[in-house]
Amino acid sequence: MSGKDRIEIFPSRMAQTIMKARLKGAQTGRNLLKKKSDALTLRFRQILKKIIETKMLMGEVMREAAFSLAEAKFTAGDFSTTVIQNVNRAQVKIRAKKDNVAGVTLPVFEHYHEGTDSYELTGLARGGEQLAKLKRNYAKAVELLVELASLQSSFPGLNVPLLISSQSWMRESEKSSIG
């Protein structure tokens, strides 16, 4: 132990009381850092697990959506010009919110529907069932994409504070074990 780590005090009751108060404050700070680190680690692992599950599900949903697009084009013919001409504004929109985890704000996205379906009558002559299935599949794909975007955007925002609080906690535990 080097000489600069030692605190020079005069041995008295007052100095003892002050040192006890400083020790208590250091222990409380260490415990708070440990709790914060544990909460961030728990949330980090939850997000990581959800990202993996969502990506696995995303491949399956996109494959199903692409297949339903092929079915709809085969049944109803080329309907892309009808869809492009009828677009006025988006039905599905994204709202950004913030979530607080142990003092760290994370972005959270959620989707919502606005307005009515302007393509209700599309495919009425032929292929209406396939078009309805196509809409459902792509709506599910968009929903999963929004969830995945939310998870992946909060991942780096959680990683850096987790590393900082873990390092601070480790430094504090090393100091308390030395002295």
From TrEMBL:
The keyword ATP-binding does not apply. It is found in: Cytoplasmic vesicle, Clathrin-coated vesicle membrane. It is a peripheral membrane protein. The keyword Metal-binding does not apply. InterPro entries: V_ATPase_D (IPR002699). It holds the Pfam family ATP-synt_D. GO terms for cellular component: clathrin-coated vesicle membrane. Keywords: Ion transport, Transport. Its main location: membrane. One of its GO terms (molecular function) is proton-transporting ATPase activity, rotational mechanism. It comes from the Eukaryota. Subunit of the V1 complex of vacuolar(H+)-ATPase (V-ATPase), a multisubunit enzyme composed of a peripheral complex (V1) that hydrolyzes ATP and a membrane integral complex (V0) that translocates protons. V-ATPase is responsible for acidifying and maintaining the pH of intracellular compartments and in some cell types, is targeted to the plasma membrane, where it is responsible for acidifying the extracellular environment. May play a role in cilium biogenesis through regulation of the transport and the localization of proteins to the cilium. V-ATPase is a heteromultimeric enzyme made up of two complexes: the ATP-hydrolytic V1 complex and the proton translocation V0 complex. The V1 complex consists of three catalytic AB heterodimers that form a heterohexamer, three peripheral stalks each consisting of EG heterodimers, one central rotor including subunits D and F, and the regulatory subunits C and H. The proton translocation complex V0 consists of the proton transport subunit a, a ring of proteolipid subunits c9c'', rotary subunit d, subunits e and f, and the accessory subunits ATP6AP1/Ac45 and ATP6AP2/PRR. Interacts with SNX10. Belongs to the V-ATPase D subunit family. NCBIfam families: V_ATPase_subD. This is V-type proton ATPase subunit D. It comes from Propithecus coquereli (Coquerel's sifaka).
